[in-house]
Write a structure and sequence with these properties.
Strand content: over 45%
Order of helices and strands: EEEEEEEEEEE
Number of helices: 0
Shape: globular
Largest sheet: 7 strands, mixed
Structural class: mainly beta
Number of strands: 11
Length: 122
């Protein structure tokens, strides 16, 4: 079992940047890790994820080229650049026990953080 705690959310103007962090209670290389988001009234959306090696990553089509996922031994990060109002959502860190499918489907992830809010104003 792994505990996940997100931080780094906040309010930013369109075009700005934020870096989200997810502190894990276990070594990141033991789990498939990902970021998801959910806006009010919308379905949860897979944002970015990678496998246990960190060598294979996947991104949602709406964030590709603007967001980047990275990690160190105990933390997962999401660098968000060129933010848009439609990026406004609660962002969640998630983990699953391998194998890593890289499909960014929420039901495949077993462990979730409580989320951090990102608000982008125009």
């Amino acid at each position: 079992q792994v505990q996940l705690v997100e931080s780094g959310g906040g309010s930013v103007q369109a075009g700005g940047s934020l870096r989200l962090s997810c502190a894990t209670s276990s070594f990141t290389y033991k789990y498939c890790l990902a970021w998801f988001r959910q806006a009010p009234g919308k379905e949860r959306e897979g944002v970015a994820g990678f496998d246990t090696t960190g060598g294979t990553s996947a991104y949602g089509s709406s964030v590709k080229g603007r967001f980047a996922i990275s990690r160190d031994s105990r933390n997962v990060y999401l660098q968000m650049n060129s933010l848009k109002p439609e990026d406004t959502a609660m962002y969640y860190c998630a983990a699953r026990i391998p194998p890593c499918t890289m499909t960014l489907r929420g039901p495949e992830y077993e462990y979730w953080g409580q989320g951090t809010q990102v608000t982008v104003s125009s």
